[in-house]
Write a structure and sequence with these properties.
39% of the residues lie in helices and 16% in strands. A five-stranded mixed sheet has the order 2-1-3-4-5, sandwiched between helices. The longest helix is centred in the N-terminal third of the chain and has 13 residues. It is globular. The N and C termini lie far apart (42 Å). The model has no long low-confidence stretch (mean pLDDT 95).
Length: 182
């Protein structure tokens, strides 16, 4: 599987396939987008927004959420703002998200079924990780987007002039709905 990707990569480079994607590290539109890692959004989201390579900084994770004020998503946003010139942030959730209604008990069962021992799971407590909270999803996409927008907008290290807005994209049609007064 990975070897197939590597084989394709060798041909891509040899045929100069990269040339049409050449850009720099600064987003042309000065926008960062936090969205879900869902496979349906890989090409749909950029197509629905008319984005090209180099236009925006795209930060993806399960659920497209900002869950911790000092986690990797927030760190990436701060780098985008202070080092790469981002002036606006879009939080984009989507319909039929796999992280919605995710159950930590089910996730822990899957983890154990894949051979992770109870001992290793217990170690998480010593790392101050609440696995039940960390592995849980959300019940409502709109509330998740609103929570992420609030966290970013009110973060003590985000300047007041950075615009933060929340949206939900339809994972079939690409239609974007903005949520006012988030």
């Amino acid at each position: 599987m990975i070897d197939d990707l590597l084989e394709y990569n060798r041909a891509f480079v040899a045929q100069n396939g990269y040339e049409k994607y050449v850009t720099n590290k600064y987003p042309d539109k000065k926008i960062a987008i936090v969205t879900c890692m869902d496979t349906r959004l890989l090409k749909l989201l950029p197509a629905a927004l008319g984005l090209r390579n180099g236009d925006v900084k795209m930060i993806k994770n399960a659920g497209g959420t900002v869950t911790h004020p000092f986690g990797s998503v927030m760190r990436s946003l701060l780098v985008a703002i202070y080092e790469l010139g981002v002036e606006e942030v879009m939080i984009i959730g989507h319909t039929d998200c796999g992280a919605q209604h995710m159950d930590s008990e089910v996730m822990l069962r899957h983890i154990k079924e894949h051979g992770v021992s109870d001992e290793k799971i217990e170690l998480m407590k010593y790392c101050n990780v609440d696995l039940h909270s960390w592995l849980s999803g959300f019940d409502n996409v709109e509330q998740s987007v609103r929570g992420s927008v609030r966290l970013v907008r009110n973060h003590p290290l985000v300047p007041d002039d950075v615009v933060v807005r929340g949206f939900i994209i339809n994972s079939v049609t690409g239609e974007l709905t903005e949520y006012e007064n988030i």
